[in-house]
Write a structure and sequence with these properties.
Elements: H1 3-22, E1 40-41, E2 49-66, E3 72-85, E4 88-96, E5 104-109, E6 123-128, E7 138-142, E8 176-177
Antiparallel strand pairs: 1-8, 2-3, 2-7, 3-4, 5-6
Length: about 180
């Protein structure tokens, strides 16, 4: 990870803090925005920017994810990412909803920091590519970009909970954390 990448990441984090503090669509309740002094993050760490091998599922299985308000949302399990993190082999499933852009993937996950150093319901990553991923492709999973969903800041939001298939057995000390 170059100093330039770490600096870009810090600038993006500052922009997100500004959005949370001032924007009308901020998930921070209006009465709390005056005291909002920014999100907490782990320091950028290149070891949490991992290369993953893609397995594409041409006939994706539907997955029903529970949400923080008890509803259920349906996603399609379109890819599986196989990678190594902290010396451990791991996999995460990538999802999208029917009709979504094929280059957009949603990767919700839990890890050993969940509920202790990070939001209790898990965190999210999103991947964007110009084309659909195919079998054997390599994709970069950058846990430095992992974030807590809006429901971490307000109960007015309903957020999908990471399915058990996306519970990692390692602590991923990267991305957003709790204070």
């Amino acid at each position: 990870m170059t100093d330039d990448y770490a600096e870009r990441l810090r600038r993006n984090r500052a922009e997100k803090d500004d959005f949370f503090a001032d924007h009308p669509q901020s998930p921070v309740p209006p009465e709390e925005r005056g005291s909002f002094d920014g999100l907490a993050y782990f320091e950028p760490d290149p070891s949490y920017r991992v290369e993953a091998t893609v397995t594409r599922h041409d006939d994706p299985d539907p997955v029903e994810m529970e949400t923080t308000d008890g509803r259920v949302v349906r996603y399609l399990h379109v890819v599986t990412f196989a990678f190594e993190v902290d010396g451990e082999a791991a996999e995460l499933q990538g999802y999208r909803q029917a009709g979504d852009d094929p280059g957009q993937l949603f990767v919700p996950f839990r890890d050993k920091t969940t509920g202790q150093q990070t939001y209790e319901a898990g965190r999210y990553m999103e991947l964007e590519s110009d084309a659909e991923l195919t079998d054997g492709d390599t994709a970069t999973l950058d846990f430095n970009l992992a974030y807590a969903p809006f429901c971490a800041y307000s109960e007015t939001f309903s957020c999908p909970l990471p399915p058990e298939a996306n519970w990692l057995d390692v602590a991923v000390e990267a991305g957003e954390r709790t204070a």
